[in-house]
Model the fold of this input.
Amino acid sequence: MKPYKNKINRIRSFALALIFIGVVIMYIGIFFRSNEIVMLIFMFLGMLSIIASTVVYAWIGTLSTRAVKIQCPNCGKHTKMLGRVDMCGHCREPLTLDPDLEGKEFDVSYNKSKMPHEKSSK
Ligand SMILES: [Zn+2]
Done:
């Protein structure tokens, strides 16, 4: 229904999922205590997943420095956007830095799906 998400938020939830998966994999490994090699493989995979998530988190850090902090015209909150087009992290308002893209890109799907949001107007 909502295919678009703020890019930084999306990467952050991906990193969080990696930590979770890593912990689950390591937890599964505990059930194979009798088989040391299998347990070690699970532990290794779990560690790998957690290491990957820290790498992703570090990547978000570098991305955030390049991200532009702007005030969302829709909800008024501050959000960080990546690239030329991104979503507001709070209300998923499509945002663009490129005037040429204004009204394009997201409009096709958003003209329809934005209607229920109108209640937020005071
Ligand atoms: Zn917003």
About this structure: The first strand starts at residue 68 and ends at 71. The longest helix spans residues 36-66.
